[in-house]
């Protein structure tokens, strides 16, 4: 049994010929992308599809966008705590604001003669 498996394995393992054949059937290009943290990722793209590689690639290590220009990587996505704070304040004021907006809307409708 053991010897049978060994023979099978050697046949599947192929040689340098098998590898060359595989490379010919699916030509692929590898492009390096760098993120703002200096991570390099090299996704490979099939040339057969005719699809051009994207300008940016999400860094698999930190999630930042990565670009093909090593010295000038894309800026990381903005996540400003100030913005969320502002949104929080807006949310708290929404009740009073909602009433004001409703009154304004009603007045607008009255002005246009849509309601009395
Ligand atoms: Zn990264």
UniProtKB/TrEMBL annotation:
Belongs to the RNA polymerase-binding protein RbpA family. GO terms for biological process: positive regulation of DNA-templated transcription. Keywords: Metal-binding, Transcription, Transcription regulation, Zinc. GO terms for molecular function: bacterial-type RNA polymerase core enzyme binding; zinc ion binding. This is RNA polymerase-binding protein RbpA. Forms a complex with the RNAP catalytic core and with free principal sigma factors. The gene is rbpA. Its cofactor is Zn(2+). Residues 1-24, 41-81 are annotated as: Disordered. Binds to RNA polymerase (RNAP), stimulating transcription from principal, but not alternative sigma factor promoters.
